[in-house]
Structure prediction request, 652 residues.
Amino acid sequence: MRLTYPDSIRIIRLPCTGKVDVIHMMEAFQKGADGLYVAGCLEGECHYLTGNLKAKKKVEYTKKLLDEIGIGGERLEMYNIAASDGPRFAEVAREMHEKIKALGPNPIKSATSNKEAA
Amino acid sequence: MIIAERKPMDEIIGFIKNYKKILLVGCNECVTVCYAGGKKEVGILASALKMAFKKEGKELEVEEVTLERQCDHEYLEEIRNIIDQYEAVVSLACGVGVQFMAEKYLSTPIFPGVNTCFLGVTEESGVWTERCQACGQCILGQTAGICPISRCAKRLFNGPCGGSTNGKCEISKDLDCAWQLIIDRLKELDRLDDYEEIMPIKDWSTERAGGPRKVVREDLKS
Amino acid sequence: MNTKTKTPSKLEKILAAGHLAVTSECGPPRGSDPEAITKKAEMIKDYVDAINITDNQTSVTRLCSLASCIHLKLMGIEPTLQMVVRDRNRIALQSDILGAASFDIFNILCLSGDHQQFGDCPNGQNVFDIDSMQLIQTLRYMRDEGKFLGGDDIGRPPQMFVGAAANPFADPFEIRVPRLAKKVAAGVEFIQTQCIYNLDKFELWMKQARDQGLHEKVYILAGVTPFKSAGMAKYMKNRVPGMDVPDEVVKRMSDVPKEKQPEEGINICVESIQRLKEIEGIKGFHVMAIEWEEKVPEIVERAGLYPRPKDL
Prediction:
């Protein structure tokens, strides 16, 4: 479709969002990601039936965990986008980009760089 | 099995905030089955702790180990050669394992990473409920397989009390009235006459009330 | 019916003589001023045969039942000690029974007790060392065998007239009479029921009790509580476990203007007593006028139960 979306997004492909586990999301932030979103098929259209529903629950759990440690659960979101829906994909990418930009960098990065600066 | 739940993050962070190098030890048995302290949970907790420290501009080194059990000597011995390299241990085993480890490794602070909750079952995926209070004198034969000590909020032996409403306990609509369950089961077993017998006063000496308990099998001692 | 009494209890004497007994209850204060009890008791003493003192009702910490009963006894009023098994182990229960007996308190009501979750100490422990059924057995054992649970002899065994509560309206309904039968088998001598608004259901429960001959083995006192307002009726209908308030009764209260509601509440109460009098097996009434003790005299008088028997 040749639609543009921000180049801050790195895409990691999976056969199904059902494969996403809490540890994957945690490690993304641990390695410095400022934001993360899990994009699964529309509810009811999962090729593996319930993969995207399981992903949704794991995302909710991880958001709470990120809140607990002060990273901020709002940096993580679950979206449902039809595979063919290019415009929506681009829209979500822009949405997340703007949201994370407003939140600022991952707190673990600023703390380390503050330390280095000090 | 023993059901446990991870402690709140701020509590665990509070235990180890002054350390730089810790050992995080999981257990492959009960806490794995209830998703509180198995290998996966160890990984998630390690990641969370590292991030929490980094956020404060500190580094935390975490070694992850999951033992088969922490309530048997042979498995706890497996960390003997490495434990001295760490300033502290956070154990995700139940309270039993945490204590047994602390008894073994006297010069290393051992902290609990989970709250040990009760003896129970997996009713369905993600839902665990209590079934046994380990009273030491099982009465399940007389109560149609349902325990009034662990499932009745007042541990009545001759229930139900006057608060039982629509098969639910007075303290919560989500809690079944144990005595309703017992009566229903007795009816199904055609043993409702059993209800007429007054259950005698309980001997609590084999329960916590009697002091810490011990079981010995002479034939099995070395 | 046995006209000989087993204890010096005035309540037992009245029941044994074939009179309809009348009891009521007072809630102790959340403080140490005994006047809160003695004033209420003074108001109703000529209209009732014995006064129950509740025991940390709804798990709210109050002046204890035992001390309150002693205050009543010192005033020359017949008290009924209420004892829940929620807060005391078997040692404390036996000990408090002896404490009551040392002041010649002759009536006791054995109860489980509301869970502490409802009260002011929801984080506290509970005891439930023995249950209310076993407490009944314990009392009969202490009185009739003259022994402690542990087997030793009791010096001057307690002479207690043993009572318990019954709730015909709790679930499961089918087990309510068997539970009453169990309490009778355990040795209970009088029963006070939960307050009655659903007279049809109560009549059914009584019929089942009579079918088992229970009405001749235990004195059943029907519980009644007057509604102060339609709001109270609705609250009790919806928020109190084990309470059965039929819609018609709530409607009767709501149909009346607010200032007339207390009067209607008393009317309903008196009418209930009249209807309950007709039920075979009812040996008396337990009038619970919560925070409205001043209405007890009117209720007792209008129900034709005044004056109370004297000089037994």
Observations:
- The two ends of chain B are 28 Å apart (CA to CA).
